[in-house]
């Protein structure tokens, strides 16, 4: 999971660099996909290529097993698994698709899809979604929108990864905080931090990295009623009063002695495991962290610090690629593969991600098999997903810069956010010049 975000800036830079050249070549923006109907593929035998970035954790074991099972059940479809680093996908995909050598189906993040769509690399999937019987109500609220661009659907949801609060219950117990009543709001959370401080424990270590500083800031921004961008993503808005409140709350944790300054990347989760802190805002992927060992820990929903419930979440989606000369039989077979994978995703939590399909997540067996997931599942009704706009990943990087500058004391929260918004708006303008619309 960490590699996935660490390489995003590299992939974004490559994609943006290629964007002007690719869009200048002309594209049908995947319009050929409108003729594909793929509820259950019955055509001639085909071999389809599947690109994905699942190269770590349990995924390299689980994905081949799922593909083998699918292949054994479908005599007219052979799926070829092609795992690679997420950065390699971002670098190779544009030219491969334009040359007709890309995958038939691939997995992308929610904030990558619009970029691919603007470049004409992905097929419009409205007819595919309809033929599979999917609607927005089959997935968490707002998730289907992450796969839209210019009013058309370009992707089908696969997984979600919300943030949660990880708790070292032994640390709470020693500080006189009842571990059976973990704080869920600002008042109780700050009261717990005060008790921890009195016991000599800095209760929540904050950092200026994507893990977890950026995601905590974004969650708090939404909790205070703000947003990262305006609705059409034509300007950045994270320097609003809500943004300043969110980032100030984080810097105050350091100012008031609840967090050390200059926490190293991963320093907070390592401190939780070592019993040096009690709370850590982190993603659902940590539920698979083997370093927890015999740690007396629990995951709960992130506390509501602001005026409303909100939490950050990433997402991944299936995309049907618009290769030069794309075989419609392969696209139809790929759609059948996608539906089967979604229907059979009950064990996907082994990889540290939640299945996107509601019927799979709502099955009581999922929580029975993976009890640590319940708080993350409960958060989905108020989760916020990635912004959707061509080239948005390069813009998102400015948010991390602002968080880092404020957390490390280089700038005040207001100045850090104002400077970052200025850079973000310049990049948004650049993206508009590159991709149009």
Folded structure, characterized:
By secondary structure, this protein is of the alpha/beta class. It has two domains: 2-161 and 313-384, D-Maltodextrin-Binding Protein, domain 2 (3-Layer(aba) Sandwich); 163-311 and 391-435, D-Maltodextrin-Binding Protein, domain 2. Helix content is 43%, strand content 14%. It has helices spanning 2-6, 8-24, 59-73, 86-98, 113-118, 126-131, 169-174, 186-198, 210-223, 241-255, 267-274, 328-343, 358-361, 364-369, 374-379, 392-407, 413-435; strands at 46-52, 77-83, 105-109, 148-149, 152-153, 156-168, 279-283, 297-300, 311-320, 354-355, 383-384. The strands form two sheets. Strands 1, 2, 3, 6, 7, 8, 9, 10 and 11 form a nine-stranded mixed beta sheet that branches. The protein has a two-stranded antiparallel ribbon with strand order 4-5. α9 (210-223) packs across α10 and α9 (210-223) packs across α16 (392-407). The longest helix has 23 residues, at 413-435. It is globular. The two termini are 32 Å apart. Residues 7-35 have low confidence and may be disordered.
């Amino acid at each position: 999971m960490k590699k996935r975000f660490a390489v995003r800036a590299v992939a974004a830079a490559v994609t943006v660099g290629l964007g002007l050249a690719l869009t200048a070549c002309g594209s049908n923006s995947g319009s050929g996909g409108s003729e594909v109907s793929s509820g259950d593929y019955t055509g001639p035998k085909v071999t389809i290529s599947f690109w994905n970035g699942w190269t770590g954790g349990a995924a390299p074991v689980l994905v081949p097993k799922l593909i083998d099972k699918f292949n054994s059940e479908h005599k007219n479809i052979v799926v070829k698994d092609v795992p690679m680093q997420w950065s390699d996908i971002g670098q190779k995909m544009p030219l491969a698709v334009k040359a007709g050598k890309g995958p038939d189906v691939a997995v992308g993040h929610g904030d990558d899809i619009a970029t691919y769509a603007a470049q004409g690399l992905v097929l419009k999937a409205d007819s595919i979604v309809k033929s599979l019987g999917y609607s927005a109500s089959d997935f968490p609220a707002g998730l289907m929108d992450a796969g839209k661009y210019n009013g058309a659907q370009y992707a089908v949801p696969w997984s979600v990864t919300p943030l949660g609060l990880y708790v070292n219950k032994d640390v709470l117990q020693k500080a006189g905080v009842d571990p059976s009543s973990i704080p869920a709001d600002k008042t109780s959370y700050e009261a717990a931090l005060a008790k921890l401080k009195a016991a000599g424990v800095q209760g929540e270590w904050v950092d200026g990295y994507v893990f977890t500083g950026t995601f905590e800031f974004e969650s708090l921004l939404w909790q205070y009623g703000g947003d990262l961008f305006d609705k059409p993503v034509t300007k950045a808005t994270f320097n609003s009063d809500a943004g300043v409140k969110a980032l100030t709350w984080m810097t105050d944790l350091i100012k008031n002695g609840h967090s050390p300054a200059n926490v190293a990347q991963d320093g907070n989760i390592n401190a939780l495991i070592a019993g040096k802190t009690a709370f850590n805002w982190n993603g659902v992927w940590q539920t698979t962290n083997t370093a927890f060992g015999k740690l007396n820990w629990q995951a709960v929903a992130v506390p509501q610090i602001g005026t409303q419930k909100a939490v950050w979440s990433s997402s991944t989606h299936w995309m049907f690629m618009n290769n030069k000369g794309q075989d419609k039989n392969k696209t139809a077979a790929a759609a059948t593969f996608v539906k089967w994978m979604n229907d059979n995703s009950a064990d996907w939590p082994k990889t540290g991600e939640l299945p996107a399909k509601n019927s799979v997540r709502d099955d009581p067996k999922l929580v029975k098999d993976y009890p640590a997931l319940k708080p993350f599942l409960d958060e989905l009704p108020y989760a916020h997903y990635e912004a959707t706009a061509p080239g948005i990943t390069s813009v998102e990087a400015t948010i991390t810069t602002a968080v880092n500058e404020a957390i490390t004391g280089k700038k005040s929260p207001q100045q850090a956010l104002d400077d970052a918004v200025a850079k973000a708006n310049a990049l948004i303008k650049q993206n508009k010049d590159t991709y149009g619309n």
